[in-house]
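User: Cupin domain-containing protein, Croceitalea vernalis:
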Amino acid sequence: MKNLITTVLFMLPICIFAQNTDYKVSSYKDEGFKAPNTHYIGEAWLNGVLQADDETDFNITKATFKANSTLDWHKHSTSQVLIYVDGEGYYQERGKDPVILKAGDVIKCDKETEHWHASTKDSDVTYLAIYGGGQPTTWTEVVTQEFYDSVADQLND
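Assistant: Predicted structure for Cupin domain-containing protein:
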């Protein structure tokens, strides 16, 4: 009995400590919040999975756009990596032809490179955006519905 009590008294602090953690856990599977229609057309949800801090100098944001939705032209002060996890989307850098990116595709956009990205006309798209924690996005030009439609027509031919 004495051994049992000693074992319990020894194990109790270990069990309590094991249950008391300071981990901050987030999930990219969370939908996030519906973004205000400020720099895009359509419907979008954003989930700030990881925010830059003193020890981590990058952000990870999950973005989900319903079909027929697009961001405006913009650029970042750091490079940006987009990891497409679901659906299909359009991507274009200034001066280059637009492309369709699909689930599993990864693309890097160099810092200060003007670009836009969107869902396709017929598919929602979800991607993880990894980018530096410095300056916020600089919005440069509105992507109109007419421009978006012309890209969709070009890529669906």
